[in-house]
Amino acid sequence: MPLPGPIGTRTLQGIFGNLETRKEYWTLKSRLNWAAFRDRNTSFSHTSTLVRRHRNRIRSIKNSQGEWITDEGEVKNFILEVTEEEIKQGLWALKPFKAPSLDGLHVEFFQIFWPDVKDLVIKEVSDIFESKVIPDYLNETLIALVPKNQRPESLNSYRSISLCNSIYKVVTKIIVGRLRPCLYQLI
């Protein structure tokens, strides 16, 4: 039974309506506005872009010690900085005998000889994060078609396997590891 007086359940529902319904209404309204005005070089389009850019800007971030970094330059450096531990975790997250890279080296090679190749791998991965560019020699991928059955008859009878460079795989693992905690917010 609703509470008597002006703050009763019926009165609140009358004033605010069902919260989920109102949320759905405004979501739909924003989609309709976006569909109608997005590409017309209107003030709506410009305002939407500015609001989204403002909302998506990273102004501060916590480091591994739990301290806030607020300086814009320090925030950029923190995001682009990749640690030895992050690289090692990315490498060990890969399956050792999955498809080798174009040079024929399996991930296990890097895992077994980590003490010997550690400095080179760390430098290569760090350079990629600092320059924000994967060099062409690391970005080359060979696609091999492996038959799914004894007598393949069509392209559907083949499975494609991408032979990516191991360093490329480590970089993507690091990026995935960084995005995973906030993935539910992005989708």
Descriptive report:
This is Reverse transcriptase. This protein is mainly alpha-helical. The protein folds into 2 domains: 9-56, no CATH class; 80-186, no CATH class. It is 56% helix and 9% strand. It has 10 helices and 4 strands, in the order H-H-H-E-E-H-H-H-H-H-E-E-H-H. It has helices at residues 9-16, 19-37, 43-56, 72-80, 84-92, 107-112, 114-131, 136-139, 166-179, 183-186, and strands at 61-62, 68-69, 142-147, 158-163. The strands form 2 sheets. Strands 1-2 form a two-stranded antiparallel ribbon. A two-stranded antiparallel sheet has the order 3-4. The longest helix has 19 residues, at 19-37. The protein is extended, with a radius of gyration of 26 Å. The mean pLDDT is 80.
Task: Report strand %.
Answer: 5-15%
Q: What count of structural domains?
A: 2
Roughly how many Å apart are the termini? 40 Å
Mean pLDDT rating: 80
- What is the string of SSEs from the N terminus onward? HHHEEHHHHHEEHH
* Largest sheet descriptor: 2 strands, antiparallel
Summed up:
This protein is 56% helix and 9% strand. The chain is mostly helical. A hairpin with a 5-residue loop joins strand 1 (61-62) and strand 2.
Please supply descriptive tags for the structure shown above.
single chain, 187 residues, mainly alpha, 2 domains, two-stranded antiparallel ribbon, 10 helices, 56% helix, 9% strand
